[in-house]
């Protein structure tokens, strides 16, 4: 560990990305994400990396995808309106299998909404924002220190699975300052991008899936002369109109993530041993929820908490098992109710799932969550 | 000089273009320009957007990138900045470059980043069946302008100039031989280079506008585009319906990737 520092969530996220090897940032300013761009503008050139402010958020993701194809680990950061603009090219990254990390420091919408109040209302957009079928990895940290760790995980996953990875920060965590001790460089595990396993003479095809179902397209400029497209393509990388190749492609894109689902599902359990009620929360809301659960515990309530870091892929088995362990599940989130529908689906009637939405542009108070815990406890006791 | 035919992925041919389409002529001129300059095939990247014109990238034997509609320039910018030793060439259409990609176009030109942008201008949205583009002249018919277009088209070379491009040229599919040189000079310019090439789309544009065969459309071009010096001698009335061709503008201005390299040095990152 290095010395303790007072750091902001956005700053920790940016520093984590650089620690994970990010050497290219492109983006467009938008509160509450701008500190990430500003950090990159100062620090990337110090490590030989590149920062560019683009003309809009579409260009922001386009430029990082180009840089990634040319061999650089790359990241862009934005907030609600900009996240909407990036959606088409997130899908491009998914089908062309280009490693990229997109940070969305969520703010209240729709549209300009209530700028720049906190929200967690882009949960479903992160999953389904781009058109067509595609898998998605989205991670949401709840502390400043974890913003650093999540950035490293996101970069590693993007590189390893050659897929877009979204970091869902929220205004609370992004703008909060905490005392953190960051790991030293040698304590950080970095996934190096794979290089082609064969030469062209040996019959190399850039989109042949390896054992892990992830292909090995060569970086541009390394002599392989590959073709990259957003059209459905076969192993050669060139477009194919074949229904069977189309079907296989869509299946493989999903399967390469589905098969590592357990490994990439990160969450914490608190006070769960004898819990009859569980609060499921993430991001800034999880901080308030923790305080409420702790208070309810001190008052003798059998309540526990699951804090989710991996928002997508959805933690299906965690929630399925949870529903078997408890009588009631409370899902507070700073939106009109999004994540709760997935919890409800996984619980499949085994436990009572209650939504606690908040969409008035303010964060939860511990009392609000505490009161909802009491109400749910009374309900399931009946 | 390299054989330009060796720069194609012959196993990807024949191409998807209609008989008489001008895109192939413009693509061949690019291949000849690359052969003439003897660019390293492994250090040259061709980036395109979406449209009939943008299909050209797939036929050329380089690292090639077929992006999304209008977005070739941001991708190309990322490639160039990530690895400035690469020659980055962009192929785009009039819709791709001047409508959906217009914002990227002016900003890439403003940065004077070392890209060579080839606009295959057929004055129409070819791929989607003949809708009007921002480069469709007034009084032409398109599926979305059934009574004729009335909004003013852009002059893309003038847009490029105002935005800061440091090399601008206009050629045509008719003047195929001089086009090779116009493109080659663009590639050699260390900065943002723009070459507009007029090409015929007999299928989605010519037919609807009763412009005759592909050959007749080429003949029209041969009369429309005249050398810049000759154009400059014409009176304003005589210029009506004519366009200047050849190298239209050059300028000297610091190139973006080279300037950023200086930032890295200043920040100490060259030793990192
Ligand atoms: C975001 C988006 N909008 C619209 C389209 C549909 N589309 C595909 S090609 C095209 C126009 C292409 O015209 P141009 O760039 O002039 O190329 P051409 O086919 O004429 O060579 C359009 C509108 C698309 N693919 N993506
Ligand atoms: S529609 Fe027009 S631009 Fe497209 S291939 Fe046919 S002739 Fe060429
Ligand atoms: Mg066109």
How many H/I helices of chain A?
14
Quaternary state reads heterodimer
Q: What are the bound molecules?
A: thiamine diphosphate, iron/sulfur cluster, magnesium ion
Specify the overall morphology of chain B. Answer: globular
Number of distinct beta strands of chain A: 15
Assess the beta-strand content of chain A as a share of residues.
15-25%
Strand order in the sheet with the most strands of chain B: 2-1-3-4-6-5-8-7
Q: What percent of residues of chain B adopt helix (DSSP H or I)?
A: 25-40%
Distance between the termini of chain B: 40 Å
* Beta strands of chain B, count: 8
> How large, in whole angstroms, is the Cα Rg of chain A?
21 Å
Average pLDDT number of chain B: 98
Structural class of chain A: alpha/beta
Q: Are there runs of chain A of 5+ residues with pLDDT below 50, and where?
A: none
Low-confidence region ranges of chain B: none
The biggest sheet of chain B, with number of strands, parallel, antiparallel or mixed sense and barrel status, is: 8 strands, mixed
The amount of beta strand of chain B, in percent, is 15-25%
Q: How would you describe the overall organization of this protein?
A:
The complex is a heterodimer of chains A (382) and B (272). Chain A is of the alpha/beta class and 382 residues long. Chain A is 39% helix and 20% strand. Chain A has helices at 9-19, 34-43, 57-69, 80-85, 87-96, 123-128, 144-161, 171-175, 243-258, 261-264, 283-298, 316-325, 339-347, 366-381; strands spanning 4-8, 22-27, 50-53, 73-78, 100-106, 137-139, 164-170, 177-181, 227-229, 267-270, 277-281, 303-308, 310-312, 328-333, 352-357. In chain A, helix 7 (144-161) links the parallel strand 6 (137-139) and strand 7 (164-170). The N and C termini of chain A lie far apart (50 Å). Chain B contains eleven helices and eight strands. Chain B has an eight-stranded mixed β-sheet, with helices on both faces. Chain B is 38% helix and 17% strand. The radius of gyration of chain B is 18 Å and the shape is globular. With 272 residues, chain B is an alpha/beta fold. The A-B interface holds A 24, 26, 44-50, 52, 54-56, 58-72, 74, 88-89, 92, 220-231, 238-239 and B 12, 41-43, 45, 47, 57-58, 61-68, 71, 73-83, 85-86, 103-104, 107, 260, 263-264, 266-270, 272. Strand 9 of chain A pairs parallel with strand 2 (63-66) of chain B. Bound molecules: thiamine diphosphate, iron/sulfur cluster and magnesium ion. Residues 17-18, 21, 23, 52, 122, 126-127, 201-204 of chain B line the site of iron/sulfur cluster (SF4).
